[in-house]
Design brief:
about 650 residues
């Protein structure tokens, strides 16, 4: 039954639009036809969207999803013909509701919104620039006739390539003012910074500000207009989801102001164990760079196009080329800038007192010794590397105090207007916006889960993680989504309800509060918590994110092997593996958090030898053996080789390729 304005309309099987059309008739939209479902009207679609909002406000997420599916069906049919004037507003409202559904934890995967039909942008008399469009105006073919870059990743094989097609347009028309410089206080230096500007609205090419300023003629200024074909290509790329097909979204666009043929500095491939007398990057260098260079050389609009967010971005350089010459501290621009000698422009740090000769000498020595990285990776934020260096120097008790205090700052960033409840159980700190009694129940489960994880990993009487672990628990899915946006700096991936991480001094697990109203629910909750605690334990020892997430799931599968949640993980991993284009992306760190947990968890569960290899690698990491070496010793092969072996076995089980 559909109740609108006091009128109850029954749903009649086989007459999909009967309820819709009755509402439309009530709105004065005319007669319905006979013998077939009449087309929906704008008034009918509005009624459905109103219903979605009512269901969300009344905390009926599943009913809201069902009604939203019907609304999208009607909207797709509505815009497939001659769209009414109200279509754009209805589409905008549907986009907002889709986001709200996702924030409530509703699975909206597969619910695709239509786009308005639009004439293909092309010069008169040119028939080659047409784009074929299917129902509802969705783009079916590329606008560009240029071949794709053979080096582009498979992710963009069916769509417009950012690296080969979009980036050259942006550099050609925007590079001089907004890549090399910060004209109008606006700059983007990479795909990542472009997306953070808000100029691109994924899935809405025509409505994106980037396209708007081009079509209105506001940009680019000073001549050199963007051609209709190029603009149409940008629209298509955005409509396809504004996908990135390069190796690293933080890699700087080829700055037209950068010196041609400038030398690049090799990036460390992983952490190494220091010899006596070696300078520690984590303890001696990274903290200086964080304190003295952040603000001017951060990710957003860095001065001189030089980002110092990670060691990799520092070594990549900026408008003046590479700041470090491998093995030659005295010749490196970074050292010369700090000394204020043999340079153009201002010495560094700008607007701050000069660094002491001792500190500069330490940085110079680090470069002379080969720029060794002793903790984490070259892609890890320097704030996290510096915190890891500091953690290594503190005692367990001192780090525990610092970590638990710092957790409050992270919570305030996630949810600024809500004071959390806090509970401490030994080396575990729980912070959440649940009632205290509910958090107490979860604390009991978490304390037992921590013991089970420690036993599984064989830590003995030692702490599961030096300095303890903070477990952040969010009452509502949208609270957890806010945590992703405000703390992690990204949108929460679909279907992901928990993730461990490191933020400054804090090693944490974060998850949506699980239900604990039955024995089965408690088993599921224990598995969910165990996964986060185990992942946090590995992150505290400097493993890559993919391994920590994978190992967390593998440990949880051993702690609660019969829980419904663990069984669901196994089934979902198998399904996801079938759909993955390149499963090995899990072990090279490019698959994404959801795939790391699902597919990586299944992989390590099978490859860990009943847990013995996870125990072995934890012991190696505890002895400060670098991750790659520790993995190869414990698993008798590199991550890629061991993963490929597992993949081949999975393929044989299924009689075919597990990935596409």
């Amino acid at each position: 039954m559909i109740d609108r304005g006091g009128v109850s309309v029954p749903h009649v099987p086989g007459s999909r639009w009967l309820p819709v059309m009755l509402v439309a008739l009530l709105a004065g939209s005319g007669e319905t036809g006979r013998g077939q479902d009449p087309p929906p009207t704008a008034a009918a679609v509005k009624v459905f969207l109103d219903g979605v909002r009512e269901d969300l406000d009344a905390d009926r997420p599943q009913a809201a999803r069902d009604r939203f599916v019907t609304a999208v069906d009607a909207l797709t049919e509505l815009v497939g013909g001659e769209p009414p004037a109200a279509a754009r507003g209805l589409l905008d409202r549907a986009r907002g509701l889709r986001d709200d559904l996702e924030l409530q934890g509703v699975d909206v995967d597969g619910i695709e919104l239509p786009s308005l039909p639009r004439a293909a942008a092309k010069p008169k008399g040119d028939s080659t620039a047409k784009s074929a469009r299917g129902p509802a105006g969705t783009v079916r073919k590329r606008v560009s006739g240029r071949p794709a870059n053979p080096g582009a990743k498979d992710a963009a094989a069916k769509g417009v390539s950012f690296v080969a097609e979009v980036a050259p347009i942006l550099l050609r028309h925007c590079g001089g003012c907004h890549v090399a410089g910060r004209r109008g206080e606006f700059q983007f230096t990479s795909f990542d910074t472009l997306m953070k500007t808000g100029m691109v609205q994924k899935g809405a090419g025509a409505d994106s500000r980037l396209v708007e300023v081009i079509r209105t003629g506001d940009m680019p200024r000073g001549g050199g207009k963007v051609s209709p074909e190029e603009c149409a290509l940008l629209v298509t790329w955005i409509n396809e989801g504004a996908m990135f097909d390069g190796a690293d979204p933080l890699v700087a666009l080829q700055n037209p102001a950068a010196p041609v043929g400038a030398a690049t500095t090799p990036v460390p491939t992983g952490a190494v164990k220091l010899e006596p007398g070696d300078v520690s990057f984590a303890f001696d260098v990274a903290p200086v760079l964080v304190k003295q260079c952040s603000g001017c050389h951060d990710a957003m609009q860095p001065d001189g196009n030089l980002s110092m967010v990670t060691l990799e971005s520092l070594l990549r350089g900026g408008a003046n080329g590479a700041p470090i010459v491998a093995g030659e501290g005295v010749a490196s621009l970074l050292v010369r800038k700090l000394k204020g000698r043999d340079i153009e422009g201002q010495p560094m740090p700008l607007g701050k007192p000069p660094l002491s000769a001792e500190v500069i000498a330490t940085i110079e020595k680090w470069i002379d010794q080969g720029m060794k990285l002793d903790l984490l990776t070259a892609q890890t934020p320097l704030t996290t590397v510096a915190a890891a260096g500091r953690a290594r120097s503190l005692s367990h008790a001192d780090l525990l105090t610092a970590r638990f205090e710092a957790a409050d700052g992270i919570w305030r960033r996630a949810i600024a207007d809500e004071e959390p409840t806090r509970l401490t159980r030994g080396d575990l700190r729980l912070v959440g916006n649940l009632p205290e009694a509910s958090l107490e129940n979860l604390a009991d489960l978490a304390e037992k889960a921590m013991e089970d994880v420690a036993e599984t990993l064989g830590t003995g009487g030692s702490p599961l993680a030096k300095g303890g672990i903070v477990l952040m628990v969010f009452d509502k899915p949208y609270d957890y989504s806010d945590f992703w946006i405000n703390v992690i700096g990204d949108e929460r991936p679909k279907g992901l309800f928990g993730k461990a991480g490191v933020n400054g001094d804090v090693v944490y697990g974060a998850l949506i509060a699980p239900v604990v109203d039955s024995a089965a629910a408690r088993a599921d909750a224990t598995a969910a918590i165990a996964a986060e605690l185990a992942a946090a334990a590995f992150l505290a020892r400097g493993t890559p994110d993919w391994f920590a997430a994978s190992a967390g799931r593998a440990v949880a599968m051993k702690v609660e092997p019969k829980s419904a949640l663990v069984k669901a993980w196994r089934g979902q991993a198998s399904e996801r593996l079938q759909r993955m284009r390149r499963p090995a992306a899990v072990v090279d760190g490019t698959a994404g958090p959801a795939d790391d947990a699902l597919v990586g968890g299944a992989f390590l569960s099978a490859a860990s030898g009943g847990g013995s290899r996870l125990k072995a690698i934890l012991g190696q990491l505890e002895a400060e053996v670098p991750f790659e070496e520790a993995f190869e010793t414990s698993f008798q092969g590199t991550p890629t080789a061991v993963f490929e072996g597992w993949l081949a076995r999975e393929s044989k089980k299924r009689g075919g390729s597990p990935g596409r």
